[in-house]
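sanity check this chain:
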Amino acid sequence: MREAIVEKGFWYQYKYLIEDEDLKSLNKYKEFAELLDICKKKESEAKKNEKPDLKIIVPVKMNEQYQHPLIIALHG
């Protein structure tokens, strides 16, 4: 986890880290508290900078005789 957060810059949702049963035993360690703090700051920063985005991609050759498939992708 330290490698992912410190060295690679990834972060995990703060709520997940403090509520996950598998991680509760780590709460007593100073290093884990430091990782929590890093993740909390990165999560807060990400929330400030997030912007919803809508992309519509139309087939290059539109032809009314051909039924184009509809694909919808959502990511949260």
Notes: The chain is about 40% helix and 0% strand. Residues 2-49 form one domain.
